[in-house]
Amino acid sequence: MLIKSAEFVMSNSDVAKCPKSRLPEYAFIGRSNVGKSSLINMLTGRKSLAKTSGKPGKTQLINHFLINKNWHLVDLPGYGYAKVSKSAKKVFQKFITQYFLLREQLVNAFILVDIRHKPQPIDLEFMEWLGENGIPFSIIFTKADKLKPNAILRHVEDYKTELLKTWEDIPIYFITSSSKDIGKYDILNYIEQLNGN
Ligand code: GTP
Ligand code: MG
């Protein structure tokens, strides 16, 4: 899929106020600073469509982007960031949870994990929660430019071993680097396939 247009639509913290259209939707979520907003910019080829930052906790709302006028891409706040106050965290968790449970047009959630780290309980628990609620997801390994090719393979294998403790099958996964433009078309083509065109 080629990206012909990518427009910011709206930000909000209430799933009831998200766009009413029934366009298929894809959400990007993961720990703070994992590279969600950077990945969205890589996918759309727009350097600053989604706001990125070296400091975790940049994205704080549900952000809808309209792509090629026929699907929505959604940038969500990171979970598991210790420096956000407890009450702010609760608010985040509530609207993120509501988003996943209530957003019927959501086709797939992409869970981003930093390829350098061992599987983190918070990510594994979130995947389990999605599974329990019947929400399809795939995994995106980010920041692959930070590891050598053999380390990438080793880290992915370790991740798969961990997943197989809970899951019968390994979810579809992608290896990406937003700074090196790696994995872009694998993800866009997968979305195109799910969109059925
Ligand atoms: P929050 O919105 O705070 O939850 O963060 P986020 O997950 O949206 O992360 P963001 O895209 O803002 O990136 C966080 C930091 O990681 C920034 O300093 C980015 O430049 C860096 N980063 C993101 N993707 C990559 C990548 O593929 N490679 C490298 N080397 N750095 C990356
Ligand atoms: Mg962000």
From TrEMBL:
Pfam families: MMR_HSR1. Its cofactor is Mg(2+). PROSITE patterns: G_ENGB. This is Probable GTP-binding protein EngB. Necessary for normal cell division and for the maintenance of normal septation. It comes from Litoribaculum gwangyangense. InterPro entries: G_ENGB_dom, GTP-bd, GTP-bd_ribosome_bio_YsxC, P-loop_NTPase. Belongs to the TRAFAC class TrmE-Era-EngA-EngB-Septin-like GTPase superfamily. EngB GTPase family. The gene is yihA. SUPFAM superfamilies: P-loop containing nucleoside triphosphate hydrolases. Residues 22-197 form the EngB-type G domain. Keywords: Cell cycle, Cell division, GTP-binding, Magnesium, Metal-binding, Nucleotide-binding, Septation.
